[in-house]
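Changelog note: in this version the structure field was regenerated for every chain. One regenerated record is shown below for reference.
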Amino acid sequence: MKDRPDKDGARQAANALLNQYQVKAAPVPVERIAKGLGVRVEYAPLDGELSGLAYVRDGVLIVGVNTLHAPNRQRFTLAHELGHIQLHRPLLEQAVHVDRGSLRRDGLAAAGVDPIEIEANTFASELLMPTDLLLVALKGRSVDLEDDEAVAALAKRFRVSEAAMRHRLDALGVVG
């Protein structure tokens, strides 16, 4: 197990995919990227807090996404699992990788305990809310995280949850 997450490596991997698939505008076509990578995406109702899973079966990369979750959360789950595929494929080839509540912002998630999950979340955030595209959308301004309308407009543009957008804006330090 890793001691520390490689957030820079995760961001670089996400940006490499954005460049490879020539993504120039939001929302990022995460399903098209998955298909381009040869990943089979399966949508199904999954148990409880299970957000998604990634595994390799007979050489085929497969991601399962919980249809009981909101569409924007499903997009984040797919991006998160693509992060595992891009960053942690040797682990996937050993066993099924299961994510329970990957978007929870509870104490455990905020504490950043598991470096592998931190890397996958960092990858997903950069993939769905690329720094360059987000800065262009902000037009050089900062955002008040309490300005629900501004956060909602950005979240809608990038097709992510408002919670994910708030977290991303805060992480980028573009809050006022």
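Spot check on this record: The chain is about 50% helix and 15% strand. Residues 71-92 form the longest helix (22 residues).
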